[in-house]
Design goal:
Family: Belongs to the CpsC/CapA family.
Structural class: alpha/beta
Main location: membrane
EC number: 2.7.10.2
Organism: Micromonospora halotolerans
Helix content: 40-55%
Region (Disordered): 458-484
Radius of gyration: 43 Å
Length: 484
């Protein structure tokens, strides 16, 4: 995965980054509030030697620099800490005093700096003053030769002792900035891990890779689609309806040399919107002037009749068992050239019925009476009905809901079709999240729909209303003839 891919994962899981940053900032603020303020008292010593002690200036400089390093260790020694505690009642033990002292030197110089850090400003200054006096006394005692001559080393206080007026720690701004940066890095890492561990189908590119087929449509999610799934009425002017029309165009030109006239619409799992997609695709094709026949071949949980508001009591099952003729149960929907063959009664053996010779003969006959036949089938991973129907069609359209189906499930559905040599026309990403910029572009460019729709031409005044049984006449006469 490239850098842009990781950035997309962080953007997709932005809430993880936000929560992590807020937790880190809260932790930093809590630590800052609960930490006692600390003050620093400093004193700086200058180490020198009498001129008569060392004649070579260069060697004398090296000698003093070595001495300064030794004096740094002496400042933090047990002996000096015990002397400081014995000299002044600080309320601290020698070990506590020793832990509060730090030393530093500058390379190439003979300056030695001692720092005492304490939560009590007065005690820090007093400790430093006592430390300075006892340190000079200790050095003179150590450096004085046994014969009582003057020591070769001399210490002078050149700065301090003095204590800071403001606490040196905690530093709220620094702590909050560091906490925010750490939270941001940790949140980004967690977001990337969460994205890499997420096996659900999240984007169109992944859907194309998994299925190995072209993306024919990306249907945006709309909250009102649950109550009004069909692209009619006000929904006909929505982004979802426009996306279905794009699917219609792509579907008709997916293979101009071998166009699919019988299309099976299926999905990997139940609830991904395959029935809605089958109905809306059929409606969109009928709007373009095609003679469309929509068949509900999901004999276990049929929904086409409920969506379209037609009578589904008698339909495909009754035709296959020979109880009725197909011309008697096909119904025209709306004022479009759309015919509907509902599922009919629920049979005890759906897969055997759909794979029977009667079903094959029916599809051969129906493809001659309509320009396009759209078949709603059962989910591929639940039962074998969808594969049985897809084998008899010219191709299949695989519908996948974004963020619901896993990549392995989509791959298994595609494999189920490929394993029986079903022509996978393409895939559709349903309920997809659309960028705000794309949504704005459509809203700015869509055609305004007048309050009152256009009147129906006189030559179409006799067309049946929604859910009305098809009368003998026009292109449906062939359905009646074939059924007999």
């Amino acid at each position: 995965m490239d850098v842009l891919g990781y950035l997309r994962l962080v953007r997709r899981h932005w809430w993880i980054v936000l929560v992590t940053v807020m937790v880190a900032l809260g932790t930093a603020a809590l630590v800052t509030v609960r930490t006692a303020p600390r003050y620093e008292a400093t004193v700086t010593f200058f180490v020198t030697t009498p001129s008569q002690g060392v004649t070579d200036a260069y060697q004398g400089g090296l000698f003093l620099q070595q001495r300064v390093k030794s004096y740094g260790d002496l400042l933090t020694s047990d002996r000096l800490a015990q002397s400081v505690v014995a000299e002044a009642p600080l309320g601290l033990t020698a070990d506590q005093v020793q832990r509060r002292i730090t030393t530093s030197t500058e390379a190439g110089t003979v300056l030695l700096k001692a720092t005492v850090t304490d939560t009590d400003q007065t005690r820090a200054l007093k400790t430093t003053e006592t430390l300075s006096a006892k340190f000079i006394e200790l050095v003179q005692k150590v450096e004085t030769p046994p014969d009582g001559k003057a020591p070769p080393i001399k210490l002078e206080v050149v700065s301090g002792p003095r204590v800071t007026s403001n606490p040196v720690s905690p530093q709220p701004v620094r702590n909050l900035v560091l906490g925010g940066l750490l939270g941001l890095l940790l949140g980004a890492g967690l977001a990337v891990l969460r994205g890499l561990a997420d096996v659900r189908m999240r984007d169109a590119a992944a859907l194309q890779r998994v299925t190995g087929s072209p993306l024919l449509g990306e249907i945006p999610f709309e909250s009102g689609a649950k109550s009004a799934p069909l692209i009619v009425g006000e929904a006909a002017n929505s982004r979802r309806a426009e996306a279905v029309r794009k699917l219609r165009t792509n579907l008709r030109f997916v293979d101009v040399h071998e166009p699919a006239r019988v299309i099976a619409v299926t999905s990997a799992l139940q609830g991904e919107g395959k029935t809605t997609m089958a109905c809306n695709t059929a409606i969109a094709l009928a709007e373009a002037g095609w003679r469309v026949l929509l068949i509900d071949a999901d004999l276990r949980r049929p929904k086409v009749a409920d969506y379209l508001g037609v009578d589904g009591g008698v339909g495909l099952t009754d035709v296959l068992v020979g109880d009725v003729q197909v011309g008697d149960v096909v119904q025209r929907w709306g004022d479009k050239s759309l015919l509907v063959l509902p599922s009919g009664a629920t049979p005890p053996n759906p897969s055997e019925l759909l794979g029977s010779k009667a079903m094959a003969d029916l599809l051969v006959a129906l493809r001659e009476s309509a320009d396009i036949v759209v078949i709603d089938t059962a989910p591929l991973l639940a039962v074998t009905d969808g594969v049985v129907v897809a084998v008899q069609a010219d191709g299949a359209l695989l519908v996948t809901q974004q963020g619901r189906t896993s990549r392995s499930q989509v791959a298994a559905a595609a494999h189920a079709l490929h394993s029986v040599s079903v022509r996978l026309l393409g895939c559709v990403l349903n309920m997809a999240k659309v960028a705000k910029a794309d949504a704005y572009q459509y809203e700015a460019y869509k055609v305004a729909v007048p309050a009152a729709g256009p009147s129906v031409p006189a030559d179409r005044a006799g067309v049946a209303r929604r859910g009305e049984q098809v009368p003998a006449g026009d292109h449906t006469q062939e359905l009646t003839r074939l059924s007999r």
